Amino acid sequence: MESKVRIAIIGGSGLERALESGEEKRIKTPYGEVSITIGTLGGEKVAFIPRHGRHHEKPPHKVNYRGNIWALSQLGVERILASNAVGGIRDGLKPGDFVIVHDFIDLTKSRPLTFYDGPKVVHVDMTEPYCPELRKVLVRVARRLPVRVWDSGVYACTEGPRFETPAEIRMLRLLGADVVGMTSVPEVVLARELGICYATVCVVTNYAAGMQERITASEVVEIMRKAVPLLIDLFEKSISEIPKERNCSCANVLLEAQH
């Protein structure tokens, strides 16, 4: 019998080279076919999904979030480690910093946000949207790496694909956001709806609009390129330190959800 894949990574371009001897699988879901690479990392069998596609052809608002999370669930995945490129809003954040966020603000507009569109309606608890057990491991391991890490933060998710305006960033600062990106929602919500632990490492690639003269796509790409080896190292070491048994409430969220 083929062994179950317990851990998955969802990330951007460049992370696929983290896996050793990867094999591509195509999984049919109610939301379309999803391509997943399965290999090994940190001594563990790991599934990897490039969020934006192999050639970065899917913009943030067109990513097949439901298909991706459903496919991972079909593989038996219990934990997802993700990475996101973000703009820094909180004072003190600098490009290249890692932020292990603990909460989010959803400002998306047109994305399918749930698996429960009816007739079954489920309201899941999002008091701790990012798994505290996984976050603890990521923070502990990241602090051993040559990178500045922030152990908490609020992620504001905008629709994209454009960057935000200075007025929007001022609003987000007032709302308590620390970083801004375009991809963590609904990914984190969908994982919670299927009882999968989810945590993400946000890489600050730029100061948010109005906090620097202008934002260019090239600077974002360059910071992420430099961050990829550190992300791979972080994920590899974290995977080897994740407890085999889950000690968080993520797996039981559906038992406690309001129907």
UniProtKB/TrEMBL annotation:
Pathway: Purine metabolism; purine nucleoside salvage. Phosphate binds at S13, R51, H52, T183. Gene3D superfamilies: Nucleoside phosphorylase domain. It is an enzyme of class 2 (transferase). GO terms for biological process: L-methionine salvage from methylthioadenosine; purine ribonucleoside salvage. Its EC number is 2.4.2.44. GO terms for molecular function: S-methyl-5-thioadenosine phosphorylase activity. Catalyzes the reversible phosphorylation of S-methyl-5'-thioinosine (MTI) to hypoxanthine and 5-methylthioribose-1-phosphate. Involved in the breakdown of S-methyl-5'-thioadenosine (MTA), a major by-product of polyamine biosynthesis. Catabolism of (MTA) occurs via deamination to MTI and phosphorolysis to hypoxanthine. NCBIfam families: MTAP (TIGR01694), PRK09136.1 (NF006599). PANTHER family: S-METHYL-5'-THIOADENOSINE PHOSPHORYLASE. This is Probable S-methyl-5'-thioinosine phosphorylase. It comes from Thermoproteota archaeon.
